[in-house]
Amino acid sequence: MENELLNLVERLLDCGEQMALFEPRDRIYLRNQYYDLFDLTPLKSYPEISRQELHTPAEYASLILDKLTEYTRNKLGETEEQQICKIIHIMLPPPSSIENKFNRIKSTDGIINALNWYYNFSCNSDYIKIAAVKRNKSWTSESTYGNLEITINLSKPEKDPKEIAKLKSQPKSDSAYPQCLLCIENEGFAGTGSKPARHNHRILEMDLNQQKWYFQFSPYAYYPEHSIIINKNHKPMLIDQNTINALFDFVDQIPHYLIGSNSDIPIVGGSILNHDHFQAGNYIFPIEKSTMKFSRKIDNIQIEYLNWPVSTLRLNGKRSELQILTAKIIKEWYHFSMPELDIIAFSDKGVRHNAITPVLRKINTNNYQLYLMLRNNRTNSSYPDGIFHPHESLHHIKKENIGLIEAMGLAILPGRLDYELEEMSRFLEMNDKDLALIELLYDEQMLKHENWLTELYTKYTDFSNQNLIDILRNEVGNKFCQVLEDAGVFKQNEAGDQGVTRFLDGLV
Ligand SMILES: [Zn+2]
Predict the structure, then answer these.
(1) Ligand 1 centre from 189 Cα, in Å?
(2) Neighbouring C-beta atoms of residue 42, cutoff 10 Å
(3) 68, 70, 82: which is closest to 39 by C-alpha?
C-alpha cells in the first residue's frame, strides 16, 4: 500500500513537472515535502507502476486521498477541496514568483502571452475548476434584441450534507478572517468549514486609478477568461468617476479584454456589494451586437440608445471626452426621477435608488466604447422584490439579481433547472395535458412550473423527441428575455423612449 502511495507521489510530481508548476531542480526537495505531509517512509527505489489515464494534479491529488484514507487515517483538512488544495500547493511557487514571471513574459512577449501563461497556470494549479465548468449546459436563443445566451450553472459543487452538518457544529469564531471571499487575504488561506481553501490562489497586482488592485481568474468561469479585479481594501462598491477612471486604466493595460462593474446597490447589483470589484474577460457579449434605436450628440459624443431590454446608453469616443461626459451622466442619472414610469431617484429617507452598470471596451488606440446601463432598485407593494427586477411569474426560471453578466445578455441559470427541464420534457412528451399536470403535482420541486406547463400545452400542439429540446431551450430563452425586460427602467415602448429623451435633454 505504501508503495502505491510512493508511486502516486512520483506521478503527481511528473504531472506537476510537465505542467511547469515547478523547476526540475526542485523535485527532490518537493518529494521530501510530500513524504512528510503523507507520513511516508522513503525507499531506495520504487517499482514502476503503469501510468494512469489522468492528466491533472487535482486528479492525482484525489487518487492520493483515496489511498491515504485506506492506508492511514491521515487527515489533511476538513473538506475534500481543502485537502486537494493542500496537496497541490506544495508544488506551486509563491505569489511573488508568479507575478515576476508574468511581468517578464509581458515585457518580452506582450500582455496576451502573459495572460495566456497565467491562465494555464491557474488551470494547472486547479484554481480554475475546468472539469466543473465543462459540466455547464449552454445554448443561444433568438430574441427581438438579437441572440441571447443561456447557461445552466452546474459547476459550483453541491455542499455535501456531511460538510453542512460539520459546519453547524463548528464555532462561529472563524468568520472574521478573511473578511469576505474577495479579500486579498485569501491568497494562500487554508480554508475553514465555511470558507473555501485558497492554498493555490495566486493574484497579480495592478495599478488602476493610482490605487492597488489585484487580478485573478474566476474559479467557476461563466465565459472565456472570466476574471475578477479586486480592490486592495475591503470597502463597499461605489460607482462614480473613480470607477470609470479605473476601468479605462484597465483596458489601457489589457486592451483585448472587456471590463465592467456591477451596480453598487442591492437588487440591481451583484451578490457581493461589500468589497469593491470588477469583472472582465476575453469575450464578446450579446449586448455588443445590439443595434441603435436612436441617438443624440452631446459634447461631441454620439450617445446611442440601444435596442436592448436593460436600458442602455452606448458612447463611442476618446478617453478624456468620455470621462467628462460619463461624470455628467452618472450625476444626472443618480438624481433623475420620472414617477409616471415608476423611476424615483431617492427614498423618503434620502437613500439612492438609481444606479449604473458600466461596461467598457477599447476599440483601438484612441477609441473606446462605453456602455452605461441605467438601473433602479425601488420596490413597491405590487413588486416587493423590485419593480425593475424579474417579476414573480418568472421566478420559476430566475429570481436572483440581474447583475452585470446577465444584463449583457448571458443568463446564468440555477443548476436545479437541469433536472426540472428534463422533467418538463417528460411531461410534454406525454402529449396529454391533464395527465402531465397530475404527474407534475406529485413532484414538489416541479410545482412552480405548473403555469408554464399549461402555457406550453396551449402554445404547441405536438411534442416529440425531435422538437422537445428546441422548444424548451427557446422557451427558457423567452423567459430570460422577459427577465431582462423587467430589469429595464425605460420599457421598449413609446413612453419608455420619451423617458430616455427627457433624460438625455437634461444632459444638454
Ligand atoms: Zn473583502
Answers:
(1) 14
(2) 9
(3) 68
- Look at residue 308 and tell me whether its pLDDT is greater than 70: yes
Distance 379 CA to ligand 1 centre (A): 28
Give the distance (Å) from ligand 1 centre to CA of residue 215.
Answer: 14
Of 203, 191, 216, 200, which Cα lies nearest the Cα of 16? 200
Cα 164 to middle of ligand 1, angstroms: 23
Determine the distance separating the centroid of ligand 1 and the alpha carbon of 176, expressed in angstroms.
10
The residue with cell 480592490 is 231
Q: CA nearest 145: which of 260, 268, 286, 305? A: 286
Instruction: Over range 416-426, report the average pLDDT.
Output: 96
User: CA–CA separation, 496 vs 139, rounded Å?
Assistant: 30
Sheet bearing 354-364, strands edge to edge: 204-208, 211-217, 227-231, 277-281, 258-260, 354-364, 367-376, 312-317, 301-306, 292-298
Q: How far is the CA of 275 from the centre of ligand 1 (A)?
A: 5
How far, in Å, is the centroid of ligand 1 from the Cα of 325? Answer: 31
Residue 14: closest CA among 27, 1, 4, 3? 27
Q: What pLDDT does 176 receive?
A: 81
Spans of all domains in the chain:
2-91, 135-156+390-487
Pinpoint the alpha helices (H) of 254-398.
319-334
pLDDT over threshold 60, residue 476 = yes
